[in-house]
Amino acid sequence: MRADFIRIYKxxxxxxxxxxxxxxxxxxxxxxxxxxxxxxxxxxxxxxAIAPVPLDAASGLIARTLAARPEAAKGFSIHxxxxxxAPARMGWEVRDPQAGDHDESSTRHYxxxxxxxxxxxxxxxxPSGLASFIDVLHRVVGLPVDNDPNRWIMGVIASLYAIALxxxxxxxxxxxxxxxxxxxxxxxxxxxxxxxxxVVGIVSLPFHIVMALSSVVFAYHDGIYxxxxxxxxxxxxESVFQRPxxxxxxxxxxxxxxxxxxxxxxxxxxxxxxxxxxxxLQYQQVAGPRAIVRVWGKDDAAVSxxxxxxxVAMDPYTGKIINSDYLxxxxxxxxxWVSSFFALHMASFGGVAVQWLYFLLGxxxxxxxxxxxxxxxxxxxxxxxxxxGAAPVQRRDTRLMASATVGICLGCVCGISLMMISAKLLNGxxxxxxxxxxxxxxxxxxxxxAWSFLRGGAAAAVHLLWLAAALTxxxxxxxxVGGLFPATGLWAHTSATALAVDATAAAAALGFAWMAKATxxxxxxxxxDSAWAPRQLAPRA
Length: 541
Description:
globular
């Protein structure tokens, strides 16, 4: 390939990477955590004082609750599995009809259970919004609200990301074999960082292609759904989520007590796909003529259309199958094709092994964007005078890019870790916990950005990495304190899922501490004309 073409593609790769790198760092770091969204929710949910109702008694719980609270018949859920984030067997939510689709603050959550005398008790609950907000940061690259305009911004960033991938591969093609196996460790740190950047990029290229393309699909999914509705469903896509036909609207109300038991509905779902493991029953309009229940669950050996899995829709009174288009392992070609976009992005296939793989690839992706910015900074540094050895004053754009890269990337890390420890420290101590968590994230984020510009990228990198290590280590520390001293109001769940969150955070804290020491050593021993020399990246009047 001609050298001038390579230079053009290298320029394209550089500038698309620079324009999107910091936003993509936030998307990938938060996205890596979102892979384990359910474990984070379980870790952040305080222990429930409600005694779980046995699944065999769930039918009685439903009948008594609907008799006491008829409005719950519009929609409620039955949790088939006992877990920390399911405080009771039965729950439902009431949303303000004037609120937006993503306005969780206007949603009230309720749970129902039976007291020792067998009477129904209904309480308002407050599920943790920690993992949901981390997911928002992932989906809209750090912006505070998941709405259409912010998703369109994400779509533009994802498109530039795809261009950066293609141009990067083209730049590397002439020396692919030689550079792919090269990791030259030595005094030339820039060469080593470039080799590592290239190796990580090539090894994880299929993953990044999937992320880029599926992100564009998600950003513009309304238009895609409209096209899918016309081409595949003949304008009847909504019918997938509704019960077709049924009695006339003026038919007599049905008695929820006559519904099949939740265990029976789950068993019938398993018969359709032996690997399908039901987790939740989502009932709708059970007192009306078109009652429906969606049996949600997962099948590790199949593709799931959503992060929470897939579902089969049934008649809760007869068990008749209404729709199985979204059942993992039971989808036809067109539905499987669409679901694959979701599954490949959300790691909703292959079980825990694939989730851990996506988690590691997500962190590697975040490092890829961080290292790309560092390489840009090093490439544009001015060299020391060969005769006098005097270190030159580095360009202003280099200093500003270094400060922005360090502040934004590490600000995201520190903000998320602060949110996680605050989810326990502030639980029960503030009125609107979710609003506090979001406020604390942006407080930490912008404080880190300000500190980076105030002290310069080099010095701030060391300080903020140590801060990230301390805040991340505090995540398992809150569980340790809660386990040893429950009177503090903290808690420690002992399930393997919750303990894995603590163990992963402890490992990440050690990683940040190592990075802080390595960065400090690099600054102290590096060349005086390096873009990371303290006096080069320090703020100037």
